[in-house]
Amino acid sequence: MARSATTYLPKWKCGKTSVIRVPSVLSDEIMAVAWELDSKRAGGIREENGVYVLELEETSKSLNTTRPVNVASVPQRSPFRYPGGKTWLVPILRAWLRSLPQNPGLFVEPFSGGGIASLTVAFERHASHVIMAETDEGVSAVWKTILNGQGDWLAQEILGFELTAANVHQALAEDSGGAPLSLRRRAFLTLLRNRVQRGGIMAPGAGLVKNGENNRGLGSRWYPETLARRIREISMNLDRISFFTGDGFDLIEEYRADDSAAFYVDPPYMKAARRLYRNWKIDHRRLFEKMAAVSGAFLMSYDNDSAVQDMAREFGFQCSPICMKNTHHAEMTELLISRNLDWLDLNGAINSPASYGESSRRQKGLLASHR
Ligand SMILES: C[S@@+](CC[C@H](N)C(=O)[O-])C[C@H]1O[C@@H](n2cnc3c(N)ncnc32)[C@H](O)[C@@H]1O
Fold first, then answer.
1. In 3-state terms, what secondary structure has residue 124?
2. Sequence-separated (6 or more) residues with CB below 8 Å from residue 120
3. Which of 112, 190, 247 has the most ligand 1 atoms within 8 A of CB, as the residue to mutate?
4. Does the beta carbon of 266 sit less than 6 angstroms from any atom of ligand 1?
5. For the whole model, what pTM was predicted?
6. Residue of 120, 134, 290, 326 to mutate, ligand 1, most atoms within 8 A of C-beta
7. Which of 97, 121, 145, 230 has the fewest CB atoms nearer than 10 Å to its CB?
8. H/E element, 55
9. Quick one: which of 318, 320, 333, 264 has its CA closest to 68?
10. Which tens digit of pLDDT belongs to each residue from 157-209?
11. Dist. CA 60 → ligand 1 center (Å)
């Protein structure tokens, strides 16, 4: 039996509908699940060890930007452990996307790194489609391999690798030897490097993990089954994610005039990026100029630094510090920047003494002169 959403009032929150045909004996249950998903404007169905799991998040929970997010509560979907990774930002990212008048047609992530933002948006259907860019050759090899349909090969390669010191040294020498590598071999070697180097850092000069988690040494972050599962789950969402082969700046330019696009911009930060990434140098002023010119909504994350705050103010953007824990579990703040951060206030940050929310922004003189 075909059912049309227009049969029901009120209409769907998620936007445009399409008619699907399912066996009538299943239709009530399927509609109930669809309504649940729609009411949360998030979630999705994923497979976990042969079981289908319906994932829903609470939308009513208010954010507390003065306390670090407990990352254990956020689904880990990336095969990377990425330096500067934004798993901790996921609840805020969801709140931002839900605050938009409608689900974006396109979610654009020009500096995708480990891609947790893009994966979350694709898996939880916060946008119709996701496009990501990354200029690091190894990292982009991983995304291209999976998104070109080679995820199963990559998962098998990971499952078949015997992690010994000798094998790791041999593999990493192959990666840095300069001999031509196939894209998928480079992808495998990049994930291996990411998992055996300290802090997941793949920039030149980074050393190998020594004692690692619970003294498990080199293999302490190598979880073959988990990595294979994450890669296969991404492979189940191939039709929702694209990889842009090129510079993040060009990707922003490509969708500059698209007002249905939402941009999440997490560039190499002004400070500390050199130690973390092979490609760490960008023109920050040019990035602000680009963001000022986009028609769609955007959210940027940056180091909480006075030079960044000054630039945000100069471009008429709002900014708010946000509490997080770094890799050493020390509490610190980073900066969120957007044209409008009122949704953060609505979600509970307005009472936070450390935030530059609507009222406190004025008090602290950080309210942008025009919005
Ligand atoms: C802060 S990291 C992104 C981390 C990511 N949000 C995550 O959660 O894993 C910034 C990334 O930008 C990449 N990058 C640097 N310059 C770039 C450029 N011009 N275009 C695209 N990516 C670039 C770096 O290689 C790095 O992976």
1. coil
2. 75, 77, 90, 93, 94, 126
3. 112
4. yes
5. 0.81
6. 134
7. 230
8. strand 51-55
9. 333
10. 999 999 999 999 999 999 887 789 999 999 999 999 999 999 999 988 899 98
11. 32
State which of 76, 135, 140, 247 you would mutate to test the pocket of ligand 1, scoring each by most atoms of that ligand within 8 A of its C-beta: 135
Domain boundaries, the chain: 2-40, 71-135+246-363
Distance of CA 195 to the CA centre of its chain: 18
**Residue 279 Cα to ligand 1 middle (Å):** 8
∠ Cα 286 291 292 (to 5°) = 95
Token pair in block for residue 306: 């006075």
Q: What is the pLDDT of residues 56-109, one digit of tens each?
A: 655 545 677 777 777 777 899 999 999 999 999 999 999 999 999 999 999 999
Write 157-160 long-range contacts (CB < 8 A, 24+): 157/184, 157/188, 158/188, 158/191, 158/224, 158/227, 158/228, 158/231, 159/224, 159/225, 159/228
SS3 content of the chain, % helix, strand, coil (to 5): 45, 15, 40
Angle at which helices 151-160 and 224-235 pack, to 10 degrees?
170
Regarding the domain with residue range 71-135+246-363, which homologous superfamily does it belong to in the CATH classification?
Vaccinia Virus protein VP39 (3.40.50.150)
